[in-house]
Amino acid sequence: RTVGDGCEVLAVVKADAYGHGVKSVAPALAAAGASMFGVALVEEAVELRKLGIEQPILILGSFFPGQEADVVEYQLTPVLYDLNCARRLDSASRDAVESIDYHLKVDTGMGRLGFRVDRLDEVLPVLKNLKSLNMSGLMSHLAVADEPERPLTALQCEAFSAVAAKVEKAGFNP
User: Fold this and answer.
1) Are 132 and 88 in contact, with CB atoms under 8 Å apart?
2) Fewer Cβ in 10 A, N or C end of the chain?
3) CB neighbours of 48 closer than 8 A, spacing ≥ 6?
4) What is the rounded distance in angstroms from the CA atom of residue 6 to the CA atom of residue 159?
5) CA distances from 23 to 15, 27, 36, 52, 70 (A)
6) What does the alpha-carbon distance between residue 23 and residue 125 come to, in Å, rounded to a whole number?
7) Is 99 within 8 Å of 88 (Cβ atoms)?
8) What is the pLDDT of residues 21-63, one digit of tens each?
């Protein structure tokens, strides 16, 4: 299968490109037109930068305390689902006079990572006041998308649509 015109591809290459060897896979994907890369860890993202990958790199697992400087230095795009993490990143990016893009992760029913939908009224104003951060994406994790007979996916998609509207109403444009 191929991706149609106008579609962008986020190539997930975590865990050494799923064991296929990121040193050969990532440059090949970049040459083939991947517009963004996804990894689990900051260390994987730094490795991609050192391989010459210039496309945005999304850190799906966010980052640990102390790794903010690497996120800023290598211009990485973390997934944020914790306000303390967001505050640390805002401080590090202010110190570096850099604005950092991030993706906001919302838990619409997976029950793992993400801000709970019922907490967004308190979370969004805090994020809005972190002036060195720019919400460039909004995401969730569908728990059973591979099981179409289960209604949870439809419920999660409805919840995500409501979240997207709330995020935009709060002044964000992910």
Assistant:
1) no
2) N
3) 13, 22, 26, 37, 39, 57
4) 26
5) 12, 7, 16, 10, 20
6) 41
7) no
8) 999 999 999 999 999 999 999 999 999 999 999 999 999 988 9
Structural tokens at position 2: 């191929």
Q: Which two tokens stand for residue 65?
A: 């305390």
The DSSP-derived string for the chain is --PPTT---EEE-HHHHHHT-HHHHHHHHHHTT--EEEESSHHHHHHHHHTT--S-EEETT---TT-HHHHHHTT-EEEE--HHHHHHHHHHHHHTT--EEEEEEEESSSSSSSEEGGGHHHHHHHHHT-TTEEEEEEE---SSTT-TTSTHHHHHHHHHHHHHHHHHHTT---
